[in-house]
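Review this today:
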Amino acid sequence: MRWCERGRSDFLRLIGNDHRALIGGSGGREPAAFVVRRMGLEFLKPARIDEILEVVTRVKETTAATLTLDQRIVRAGALLFTAEVMVVLISASGRPLRLSAALRGALQDRRA
């Protein structure tokens, strides 16, 4: 699950969603962060220390404030692990926030 967390963070950063800017409240928005609401996990095959693994992250579904991601961990083309993860954008006070139009647009190109 630690690798999926890193995969989600990198995925969001690479499409222009800077976590530090979100937490810092830049761009006139209040401070916010993505938090995990739900995870469905499937462990299919073991991985061993020092193996090179790839985390593949794709968008499954979006709503006004949530993002559901399909994540897969593979080793040399072999599927080892799958996760369906729902994250919610929340304010520093814990209130759900709407995903920005720019973020929703960037997510459209990354559907599973």
